[in-house]
Amino acid sequence: MTRLVIDARLAGYSGIGTYLHQMLPRVLPHLARWRPVVLASPDNHDELAASLGGDAEVDVWNVPPLSVADLWSVPGAVGSLDLLWTPHFNVPLRSSCALAVTLHDLLPLTLPKLAGVGRSLPVRAWLRAMRKRARVVFCVSHYTRDEARRLGALRPDRIQVTPLGVNPEWFASAPDEKPPARDPASAPTMIYVGLLKPHKNVLRLLRAFARVQDEIPHRLVLVARHHGVRSIDSAALALAARLQPRVQLVEDLPLPELIACVRSAQFAVQPSLHEGFGLPALEAMAAGTPVLASRAGAMPEVCGDAALYCDPESEDDIVRALLVLVGDSALRARLAAAGRARARTFSWDACAATTASALSVTLGALHDSRS
Fold first, then answer.
1. For the chain, what is the radius of gyration of the CA atoms?
2. pLDDT value at residue 174
């Protein structure tokens, strides 16, 4: 009997973790026929099992994801007749099982210098395995799909674009609701949400902010995980410390506090040099917060005409865009309304429905071919 096995060891990560936590409860009920097995890390097993509420068997795969050991390990739960769905490009190299893969980006090949030393070699090996064994590849944007075809030579007929969605909590306030009242004595804020990695371009944002801080009253809030993160941007971390108290660096926030922080900001800034999707920008738009986004990767695809754009490689252009948004309340109001409307066109339910349908078809074809 063909079974569906899902590698969910990355459930504790940021973007991919959000993907898994939103997708699994929506997808699993449609695939019960295939007796799904969810593979968790030891440290996220209990939380994941509780969140799924008994809809799937949850086992432990005690191999750190994206480690050297991950290159050669084969999950014991996967048989040669099964379909393994991985939410990232780290597929098992020694297994012969069929694969379903979700690609969020191909950063180690697109910008190898920023991804970290030695990251491109394993990614090329994983892509070779995908070319041989992947029955379906889900790409979170058309940009990522094009990169998968250009850099991975993956078969176009096996790729499906499945844009991500927005947690409904980001839409909690009414579309015409005014922003929360701000204490007149407190400074307005601009906010960045994301990892503190080089490709996120926070260093250039900080340099731009340092140039304009004497002209504006704003604080820059960085909700940027940086402990336990590989390839940390140490220069950005050091500059953020020097710019205190005008710059506030927060490691992480519970979702309700994060939403409140983003919603109360005058605008959000996502200056990345590369994004396979750009979920924090979409979430800010859902919250009714204007967005300053980079013209890079999938950001224009996700934000459309509902954001102000900058050249992420130009500090001067980031300075220009910051000053434009600070000084133009009418533009901020227009972007807030347009962003909220655009965010409503992205849905986790739609993403899950397309994914579940493709997995079901793939599992059925595998079963029939082996009967």
1. 21
2. 42
d(CA 134, CA 305): 35
The 3-state DSSP class for residue 348 equals: helix
Say how far apart CA 264 and CA 183 lie, in whole Å.
11
Crossing angle of the two packed helices 255-264 and 279-286, in degrees rounded to 10 = 70
- List domains and CATH numbers for the chain: 4-165+347-370 (3.40.50.2000), 168-343 (3.40.50.2000)
- DSSP, residue by residue, 142-205: HHHHHHHHHHH---GGGEEE------GGGG-S-TTPPPPP--TTSPPEEEEEEE--GGGTHHHH
Whether the CA torsion 146, 268, 308, 215 is positive or negative: it is negative
Half-sphere exposure of 40 (CA within 13 A, CB side): 23
- Please state the pTM of the whole predicted model: 0.93
164 vs 2, residue with greater confidence? 164
Angle between helices 202-212 and 315-327 (to 10 degrees): 60
DSSP β-ladder status, 57-60 and 83-86:
unpaired
pLDDT in tens, 231-246: 889 999 999 999 999 9
Nearest to 164 by CA among 347, 368, 370, 363: 347
